[in-house]
C-alpha cells in the first residue's frame, strides 16, 4: 500500500500559534477597544464580491487588479473575487443596503484579505487587515478623527516609537486636473528613460509614477513638479485644517509631497504611518480621502475617508507577550476525585475565573506539575477514607484565593 503524502501548507499562507498568535490577538483586541472609544460601529462584509466591485473601484490598471486578485468564475458563470481590501466592499454595502440614511457613518472591520503577490517578510497571500472608514462626512474633521484614532491605536499597542506619520494633500478635482497635466508633460519629456510599467501608467495613471520603486524612474519622479503650485485656495484651506487639527490633538506628522494615491476618486488627504523596522516595505498603516469612490460605483457623490493596516505587520512590531496563566489550577491527586474536579471547574468558570485541571499521568506527580503552572491559586483534590479532601493555596492572600475558597465551601455544602 502506497504511503499517503503528508499535506503541505500552501506557499504564502500561515498558521498562527503561540507568541505569534498572542501578538496577533493583541492587535485585534486593542483595535476593538480603541475603536469603541471613538464610537466607531463594527461592520462585517462578505469575503468575496462581484469582480466588478474591485475592477471599478481600484482601477483595472492597478497592480492589485491586474496582477494580484484571486478571481474565478463560479458555477453560475459569475466572476467573483476574494477581497483584496475592505473599502470597496464597504462602499458597495453602503449603496446596496441603503445605509445613506445613516450618514455620516463611522465604521470599522477586520478579517482576512487575499492578494497573489510574492511572499516576503510580513506579507502573505492570505493575510489580515484592520480597517476604519468615515463615509458621508466631507469636513476635514473626519480626516483628523481617523488619524488620531490610528495614532492612539499604535500608542496603545506599544509600537509608536520609530513610527512616523507622513502626510500629503492631493487637492480637489481642479487641483488634480492641473497637476496631472503638468505631470504628464514632465514625464512625456522623459518618455525614453521611463520603465515599462511607468510607460503604461503614463497613459492611464501618471501619478503612480511618483511612487515607482524602479531605479530608472526615481530621478525623473523626484524632479517632477510638486502639487503645491497647483493647489486651489479651497484645497489649501482643507489641508491646513487637517494639519491644525492634528497639531491640536498632539499628533506628530511630517509632510511627504511625493505621497500619492493614483486613482481619480482620491481627494485631499493621503497618509502613511511608516517605520524602518520592517525592511524595505515600511508602511504599517495607510489611507486617504476618496470622495469620488462611491460615485465611481454608480452611487451619488459621497465623501469618504479611511485607512487600513496589516495585522501581521503590526504584530511583528509588538513585543513578545507572555502566555497567560490560569487563575486557578486544580490538581486531582486521586482518580476518585475526577468527578469532583469537573464540578469544581464548572463552578470556577461560571464565577469568572479561568481554570485548568491536571488529572492525567501519575497521581503522585500531579501536584508538583500543577505547582509549576504559576496560577494564582492551586487547588488540591484528594480522597481520604472515601471522603473528598480539598485544599486551596496561594503564594499570597489574593482576592482569587478568597473567591475560590467560597466556591469550594459552597460545593462541599452541596455534596453533603
Strand order of the largest sheet: 1-5-6-11-10-9-7-8
Taking all Cα atoms into account, the compactness measure Rg is: 28 Å
Give the termini separation: 59 Å
Q: Quick one: biggest sheet?
A: 8 strands, mixed
Oligomer: single chain
Instruction: Please provide the count of β strands.
Output: 15
List keywords for this structure.
2 domains, 15 strands, 8-stranded mixed beta sheet, elongated
Would you kindly provide a written description of the structure presented here, covering whatever features stand out?
The protein has two domains: 241 residues, BirA Bifunctional Protein, domain 2 (2-Layer Sandwich), CATH 3.30.930; 88 residues, Rossmann fold (3-Layer(aba) Sandwich). The protein is elongated. It has 14 helices and 15 strands. It starts with 17 loop residues before the first helix and ends with a helix. The chain has 416 residues and is an alpha/beta fold. α1 packs across α11, α5 runs parallel beside α9 and α12 crosses α14. β3 and β4 form a beta hairpin. The protein has an eight-stranded mixed sheet with strand order 1-5-6-11-10-9-7-8. It has a four-stranded mixed sheet with strand order 13-12-14-15, sandwiched between helices.
Question: What's the quick description here?
Answer:
The protein has 14 helices and 15 strands. The protein has 416 residues and is α/β, with parallel strands linked by helices. Strands 1-5-6-11-10-9-7-8 form an eight-stranded mixed β-sheet. A four-stranded mixed β-sheet has the order 13-12-14-15, with helices on both faces. A three-stranded antiparallel β-sheet has the order 2-4-3.
